[in-house]
Specification:
Elements (H helix, E strand, L loop, with lengths): L14 H18 L4 H8 L6 H18 L17 H24 L7 H27 L9 H5 L7 H11 L1 H18 L5 H21 L5 H15 L3 H8 L17 H33 L10 E10 L2 E2 L10 E6 L4 E5 L4 E9 L4 E6 L6 E9 L2 E8 L2 E10 L5 H4 L13
Antiparallel strand pairs: 1-2, 1-3, 1-9, 3-4, 4-5, 5-6, 6-7, 7-8, 8-9
Helix pairs in contact: 1-4, 1-5, 3-4, 5-8, 5-10, 5-12, 8-9, 9-10
Protein name: DoxX-like protein
Organism: Aquimarina gracilis
Keywords: Membrane, Transmembrane, Transmembrane helix
């Protein structure tokens, strides 16, 4: 006996299924829209095509937080790298409330409806393409190591105890390109399987496994993407829902599972051909867009991005201030201990292990270095420098003080974490 791609084998759904479908239709749509239309804006060069929609929802969210929930502090609204801001939580509250209200109205107006087989087919397609696009965007940024690029010079000199939980997890991923690519391929494969209805069950299972692991890492290491990774996990469960019984019968209960047929999107041959062509274009665009974006990102700010001329970690030897050599006391908050130049910032670590961050501008012809405090643009230091092998000398005047600083460059390979590498054979555990 064959079964169709319906929520149940019958054309008449029970009340719980009908109500659940109406709720998830509204809830998922509000979380996904305006996908995929915002790609149209990117293609034609109008990135703010749906700014009116985002602005309206943002205003509604802030109003709800202030008036309905009584939040009396400032709610951040712009993108800042966190997906777990107060605004994000209030947004989910608003979406749930709208979904509940929509479900009530819809259930009253359409109370005689027996099923939503066709509507569910379209909704499921909408959700699985969104999840596939998302898995690709995350996955290719790992297959081409970009999300977790490489251990920075700052990471190498920080003690474990002074790292944040998120920083510790990020460094764990950044250390190994092998594991990063493995996790990326898992996401890409899951997304690819979701593109085809014949592999949607396997794709849904893999999506749930991958995203629930991401969700647990976010929960365990204080990473502010808990809401979104949890939402993607829910979407994976939604996609698997029609086949949960068949999946349990096959994998757990050792029962026979009947073949499954798929409802066509349309019975018109021309429309079928048009859909197939559109799908081919969509899949090709999906691969090209994400792969090209990752490759360009790697060149711009990933491992292949250009490094500053003085990129490296420098250990401070002599620190001479106004002609006096300052001893390296661990309580000193002024004397430098290390001078670190990374890809996007410069840091001065004082003897008390604290790091102040600066922006740098190097002139390799005049051999000058200008550093500007990232928190205070008026705090500027100018140095001339010279070097001999790995020994560098910086000289300059800062706040009426004459400084002469001698440094020795420490190579990245001098760190055990970098030099140890991978070994197929270990006669004894090398756990340091």
């Amino acid at each position: 006996m064959e079964v169709t791609q319906d929520i149940s084998k019958k054309n008449s759904w029970n009340a719980i299924t009908l109500i659940s479908f109406r709720f998830f239709f509204a809830y998922l749509f509000l979380n996904i829209f305006p996908f995929p239309l915002y790609y149209v804006g990117s293609i034609v060069g109008v990135d703010d095509l749906f700014s009116f929609y985002y602005d309206w929802f943002q205003e509604l969210t802030v109003w709800t937080g202030k008036v309905v929930l009584g939040i009396d502090y400032e709610m951040p609204t712009g993108p800042n790298g966190s997906g777990d801001t107060t605004t994000d939580y209030v947004f989910q509250f608003v979406v749930v409330m709208i979904a509940i209200f929509t479900t009530i109205i819809w259930s009253f107006i359409d109370r005689r409806r027996q099923s939503y087989n066709r509507t569910f087919l379209y909704l499921r397609t909408f959700v699985r393409y969104y999840v596939a696009f998302t898995m690709f965007s995350y996955g290719f940024y790992k297959v081409i190591p970009l999300q977790f690029s490489e251990l920075s010079n700052f990471d190498l000199i920080k003690t474990v105890g002074n790292q944040s939980p998120m920083g510790l997890m990020w460094n764990f991923m950044e250390y190994s390109d092998t594991y990063t690519r493995f996790s990326g391929f898992a996401e890409v494969i899951a997304g690819t399987l979701l593109l085809y209805r014949r592999t949607i069950v396997l794709g849904s299972i893999l999506t749930i496994a991958v995203m629930f692991n991401v969700f647990m890492m976010n929960m365990s290491y204080d990473i502010p993407v808990k809401l979104y990774s949890g939402l993607l996990t829910i979407m994976g469960i939604f996609l698997l829902a029609p086949d949960i019984k068949r999946t349990l019968d096959f994998f757990i209960l050792n029962k026979a599972v009947n073949p499954k047929i798929f409802l066509p999107y349309t019975t018109q041959e021309k429309a079928k051909k048009a859909i197939n062509i559109l799908k081919i274009i969509t899949v090709l665009f999906l691969f090209y867009y994400n792969i090209n974006d990752a490759i360009e990102g790697e060149k711009e700010w990933g491992k292949k991005a250009p490094k500053p001329a003085l990129y490296g970690i420098y250990e401070v030897g002599n620190f001479i201030k106004n002609g006096d050599t300052i001893p390296p006391l661990t309580t000193d908050t002024i004397r430098w201990k290390r001078f670190i130049i990374g890809k996007r910032s410069l840091g001065i670590q004082t003897m008390d292990e604290k790091i102040k961050y600066f922006q740098e501008k190097t002139d390799t012809i005049a051999k000058t270095l200008q550093i500007t405090n990232r928190k205070d643009s008026t705090d500027v230091q100018n140095f001339t420098y010279k070097f001999n092998d790995s020994l560098y000398t910086f000289q300059g005047i800062y706040k009426s003080d004459t400084l002469k600083i001698q440094l020795k460059k420490k190579e990245r390979k001098d760190f055990l974490l970098i030099s140890r590498g991978f070994h197929w054979i270990n006669e004894y555990p090398f756990n340091r």
